[in-house]
UniProtKB/TrEMBL annotation:
<dbReference type="InterPro" id="IPR047865">
    <property type="entry name" value="Ribosomal_uL10_bac_type"/>
</dbReference>
<dbReference type="InterPro" id="IPR043141">
    <property type="entry name" value="Ribosomal_uL10-like_sf"/>
</dbReference>
<comment type="similarity">
    <text>Belongs to the universal ribosomal protein uL10 family.</text>
</comment>
<comment type="subunit">
    <text>Part of the ribosomal stalk of the 50S ribosomal subunit. The N-terminus interacts with L11 and the large rRNA to form the base of the stalk. The C-terminus forms an elongated spine to which L12 dimers bind in a sequential fashion forming a multimeric L10(L12)X complex.</text>
</comment>
<keyword id="KW-0687">Ribonucleoprotein</keyword>
<keyword id="KW-0694">RNA-binding</keyword>
<dbReference type="Pfam" id="PF00466">
    <property type="entry name" value="Ribosomal_L10"/>
</dbReference>
<dbReference type="InterPro" id="IPR022973">
    <property type="entry name" value="Ribosomal_uL10_bac"/>
</dbReference>
<dbReference type="InterPro" id="IPR001790">
    <property type="entry name" value="Ribosomal_uL10"/>
</dbReference>
<comment type="function">
    <text>Forms part of the ribosomal stalk, playing a central role in the interaction of the ribosome with GTP-bound translation factors.</text>
</comment>
<dbReference type="GO" id="GO:1990904">
    <property type="term" value="C:ribonucleoprotein complex"/>
</dbReference>
<dbReference type="GO" id="GO:0070180">
    <property type="term" value="F:large ribosomal subunit rRNA binding"/>
</dbReference>
<keyword id="KW-0699">rRNA-binding</keyword>
<dbReference type="GO" id="GO:0005840">
    <property type="term" value="C:ribosome"/>
</dbReference>
<protein>
    <recommendedName>
        <fullName>Large ribosomal subunit protein uL10</fullName>
    </recommendedName>
</protein>
<dbReference type="GO" id="GO:0006412">
    <property type="term" value="P:translation"/>
</dbReference>
<keyword id="KW-0689">Ribosomal protein</keyword>
Length: 176
């Protein structure tokens, strides 16, 4: 029995170490078909949900160097969400699923070694997607460059307008 627990802890530890985040959710009262639906939705955004015994998660969290406060949230029926991709997408999926079915209840989480409460995970869910944030950053970075190009082109454009006006005035004087 001890060898099985050790293998389970090692499996869980490998999942925890491969993921920058871990969410703890209470899935009490969630039907099997709804749990499967949640698993499918999380899989679509690069995350996984698994059920392990709380004691095994506590041991794996200790070995991974997670904050000790996480163990206070490891009570009751807990499922654990991990993933290697976008943390905001996983949080958004959990939030939308909870809004739709009122379960599971998000208890806590860990992001890059820092403990998050349920409100912190909701804040993550409200953030724009990674692609949107990248495009906003690109727009912010491009704005000064485009202003600089316009500023550098303005003297030449002004000179061209003055010469054009002079030319038009000279053409009108010659025609009169």
């Amino acid at each position: 029995m001890k060898a099985e627990k050790t293998l389970l802890i090692e499996d869980l530890l490998s999942r925890v170490n491969a993921s920058p985040f871990l969410f703890v959710v209470d899935y009490t009262g969630l039907k099997v078909d709804k749990f499967a639906e949640l698993r499918k939705r999380l899989s679509a955004c690069g995350a996984e949900i698994h059920v392990f015994k709380n004691t095994l998660v506590k041991k794996a969290a200790e070995r991974a160097g997670y904050p000790g406060d996480l163990s206070t949230h490891l009570v009751g029926q807990s499922a654990f969400v991990t993933g290697a991709q976008d943390v905001c997408a996983a949080a958004k999926t959990l939030k939308n699923f909870t809004a739709e079915f009122t379960k599971p209840v998000v208890k806590a989480g860990v992001l890059d070694g820092n403990l998050l409460d349920a409100n912190g995970i909701k804040v993550l869910a409200d953030l724009p997607s990674k692609e949107v944030l990248q495009s906003q950053l690109l727009g912010v970075l491009q704005a000064p460059a485009s202003k600089l190009v316009r500023l550098l082109n303005e003297p030449a454009a002004s000179l061209a307008r003055v010469l054009k006006a002079k030319s038009d005035a000279a053409g009108e004087a010659a025609a009169a």
